[in-house]
Amino acid sequence: VLHLEEVSDKPRPNMAARYDRAITVFSPDGHLFQVEYALEAVSKGTTAVGVRGNSIVVLGVEKRSAAKLQDPRTVRKICLLDDHVCLAFAGLSADARVLVEKGRIECQSHRLTVEDPATVEYITRYLAQIKQSYTQSNGKRPFGVSALVAGFDPDGTPRLYQTDPSGIYSAWQANAIGRSAKTVREYLEKNYSPETAADEHATKKLALRALLEVVQSGSKNVELAVMRNGQPLEILSGAAVDEIVAAIEKDKEAEAAKAKASKATTA
Predict the structure, then answer these.
(1) Per-residue pLDDT for 15 more than 60?
(2) φ, ψ of residue 145 in degrees (nearest 5)
(3) CA 49 to CA 89: how far, in whole Å?
(4) In whole angstroms, how large is the CA radius of gyration of the chain?
(5) How far apart (Å, rounded) are the C-alpha atoms in residues 107 and 99?
(6) CA-to-CA distance for 166 and 35, rounded, in angstroms?
(7) Whole-number Cα distances in Å, 229 to 26, 103, 104, 113
(8) CA-to-CA distance for 83 and 24, rounded, in angstroms?
(9) Which of 54, 55, 80, 234 has the maximum number of C-beta atoms within 10 A of its C-beta?
(10) pLDDT band at 219, cuts 50/70/90?
């Protein structure tokens, strides 16, 4: 009896700690903690944003400063899967590299088997299925990566999809992943419109301005890629990005002047 009393007086272990040791074990309230930890890894990654226009799809990513002796060309957050599909990711770069390689092989396999390029939804679903399979087996851990998959279907329709570590995928007009994704997404919700989607320059400007909402160091730590139907992926040069930033600054000044004039009239 004394022994039982001593055991019962000991503090009980944290409930979460009992259910986060294996990916296949649900907690009593229906959580898979390892998947949630993978989502947390994504939220600590650099920000990525995607905007779908009528004739282009724009991907923008935050670039971390490279070390002084490091070649910045070897640090890529935007990767080409096929001539017509690319992705931007947030989270663990090593995990993303594995997914990108699997996606490239599947794109080429589809071309060999069907003699047509894969649709954007097909390759997104393939990547999501790989992620989901890693949440259901012992001896594995989830991919700590979310991705924005952008491209054009064979009929010329622009597409933008998002996948997360749980294996879910969904289509979007504009979306953001990574650090401060909620802030960027709220900005996109307020400013995305059919008029913006119809204008290529406005689409690029919206993607960059949304990214600059959370990137404090300005254009030098931003990378912007534009995909057009039937054309190679275009990575905008620093000068081209600076040109869009200058247009954004002019818009901000005009908005500030308009607000000031409106306030003066009201007073």
Answers:
(1) no
(2) -140, 135
(3) 9
(4) 22
(5) 12
(6) 6
(7) 44, 20, 19, 23
(8) 37
(9) 80
(10) confident
Task: Give the model confidence (pLDDT) of 84-117 as tens digits.
Answer: 999 999 999 999 999 999 999 999 999 999 999 9
Q: Residues with catalytic annotation?
A: 47
DSSP result, the chain = -HHHHHHHHSPPPPHHHHHSS-TTPPPTTS--HHHHHHHHHHHTSPPEEEEE-SSEEEEEEEPPPPPTTS-GGG--SEEEEETTEEEEEEE-HHHHHHHHHHHHHHHHHHHHHHSSPPPHHHHHHHHHHHHHHTTSSTT-----EEEEEEEE-TTS-EEEEEE-TTS-EEE-SEEEESTTHHHHHHHHHHH--HHHHH-HHHHHHHHHHHHHTT-TTGGGGEEEEEEETTS--EEPPHHHHHHHHHHHHHHHHHHHHHHHHHHHHH-
**Taking a C-beta distance cutoff of 8 angstroms, is the pair 51, 206 a contact?**
yes
Check residue 61 and give its pLDDT: 95
**What separation in angstroms does the CA of 255 have from each of 33, 115, 248, 250, 259?**
45, 51, 10, 9, 6
pLDDT value, residue 30? 81
> Tokens standing for 256?
């500030």
d(CA 236, CA 60): 10
**Residue entry with tokens 């007073």:** 267
Q: 31-57 pLDDT, tens per residue?
A: 888 899 999 999 999 999 999 999 999
pTM: 0.87
pLDDT computed for residue 9 by the predictor: 47
